[in-house]
Design goal:
The structure is a single chain. The chain is α+β, with helices and mostly antiparallel strands and 421 residues long. Helix content is 43%, strand content 22%. It contains 15 helices and eleven strands. It has helices spanning 39-49, 59-68, 105-118, 129-148, 150-162, 176-180, 184-197, 210-221, 271-281, 288-296, 325-340, 346-361, 367-380, 386-394, 398-405; strands at residues 2-8, 11-17, 23-33, 73-81, 84-94, 199-206, 244-249, 254-261, 302-308, 313-320, 409-418. Strands 1-2-6-3-5-4 form a six-stranded mixed β-sheet, with helices on both faces. Strands 7-11-8-10-9 form a five-stranded mixed β-sheet, sandwiched between helices. The N and C termini lie far apart (55 Å).
């Protein structure tokens, strides 16, 4: 059961009281509309802030401080949730009931969170240049690593094309050119803007008193100058004309990415049916794409589908020989048509339900999984708990899955081929 408390306008605390774990989880996130002009700033900011504070001015002293508080774990959070981007921090800590009498690990985490957010390591109103430059290099390296993952690169190009009328095609971490241009003073001023204008989402998993936690967060945020700007609602896919794009690169294996659209998103009554259809169609080794396009016809080395429920987009990615583009594309579309025509077996439905059941049950296996599922679901607009979601999945019939399949239409593709192909 998730308890939701609006502490202040635009400041929300969500708590999952759970006594099963020795570890608790706390996240603190600023939530922003995804925007090309600030995506890189949001992605860079948490890592710069985690490098030190005025009281603990180096990563070594920060780690020593956290180690002294029963080995608290800490990391940056940068998430892409539909039309939103979040940035902030996540903490994993020993539950207070396992600490020595009179000691509060969570209290120490909240103290350090306040230090992170208010006692920043600055030089003349700017983050330290050497830290900013170091983290810029790390972030650019992370962004460039996607280029080395050709399948991820091709899928990113497909989504950028399909979503050129909205922000869903923007990369989660921003563009490397934007990262390279960030200046220390600009980054600090952006942080102040986040603190002033952004929605703040705090999520806690553990057994602590939620009232105490709410009072601590309220005491922290109420000290800030706030001029909260309401978040716009999540939006469905913005219609644009489809594109069939090709790019040549020095690669040994082609990457075919295909995009499909559906009015069914995670706020839609057919959402569970669409998830089941996606598993049957291409998500897993029992799927039609894997069993037919790869195993039976040997048209690809790898193939799989993904469903972006926040936006109503389904994608297929396949690793293929350069000369198999047309045949692989045709067979992928043929398998979709078979699903639309009702050629889904009871065995396929059972296997898909089992796969989703396993995934949903794992959402309560760890504090981190709980935080990730519920905080993301809340921001994406999905109202179902895992139990409600599972109940909807279990009730589905083949006819309902076929009806969901019939909402899916082909939109665009991106083919990454060899330079001499």
């Amino acid at each position: 059961m998730i308890e939701t408390i609006e502490i202040l306008p635009g400041v929300v605390l969500r708590c999952c009281r759970d006594t099963r774990f020795k570890q608790g989880r706390l996240s603190f996130q600023f939530v922003r509309p995804m925007d090309k002009g600030e995506a890189a700033l949001n992605a860079l900011l948490p890592d710069v802030m985690l490098r030190g504070t005025a009281d603990h001015p180096s990563l070594r002293t920060v780690n020593q401080h956290l180690d002294a508080n029963y080995g608290v774990g800490m990391g940056a959070l940068v998430r892409r949730i539909g039309d939103y981007q979040t940035c902030g921090f996540g903490f994993s800590m020993l539950e207070d009931r396992f600490a020595l009498a009179g000691e509060s690990v969570l209290g120490g985490v909240l103290d350090f969170l306040e230090e992170l957010l208010t006692r920043l390591l600055l030089d003349n109103g700017a983050f330290l240049p050497e830290i900013v430059e170091s983290e810029k290099k790390n972030l650019i390296s992370t962004i460039e690593s996607e280029l080395n993952n050709k399948a991820a690169y091709a899928m990113g190009c497909l989504l950028k094309s399909m979503c050129r009328a909205d922000t869903f095609g923007l990369p989660r971490l921003g563009e490397k050119e934007a990262v390279a241009a960030i200046q220390p003073k600009e980054l600090y001023e952006h942080y102040l803007r986040l603190r002033r204008e952004s929605r703040i989402e705090v999520f806690y998993v553990g057994s602590a008193d939620t009232g105490l936690l709410a009072r601590r967060i309220e005491a922290l945020v109420s000290k800030w100058e706030r001029d909260y700007v309401n978040l716009p609602d999540q939006t469905p896919f913005t219609a644009v004309e489809g594109e069939q794009l090709t790019e040549a690169m020095d690669i040994a294996q082609g990457k075919l990415s295909m995009g499909f659209i559906t009015p069914v998103n995670n706020r839609h009554p057919q959402f569970a049916a669409m998830q089941v259809f996606n598993v049957i169609f291409g998500a897993g080794m029992t799927s039609k794409l894997f069993q037919n396009v790869r195993e039976k016809l040997s048209l690809c080395y790898s193939v799989g589908s993904s469903y972006y429920g926040s936006k109503g987009i389904l994608t297929v990615g396949a690793g293929i020989d350069f000369d198999k583009e047309d045949s692989a594309r045709a067979e992928i579309l043929r398998q979709l048509e078979l699903c639309r025509a009702g050629e889904i077996t009871a065995e396929e439905l059972t296997a898909a339900k089992a796969a989703i059941r396993s995934g949903l049950r794992s959402t309560h296996d760890t504090p981190g999984a709980i935080e990730g599922y519920y905080s993301t679901s809340a921001l994406s607009g999905m109202a179902m708990t895992p139990a409600e979601y599972l109940e909807a999945v279990e009730k589905l019939t083949i006819e309902e899955v076929v009806a969901a399949a019939n909402t899916v239409t082909y939109h665009s593709s991106f083919f990454l081929k060899g330079e001499d192909a």
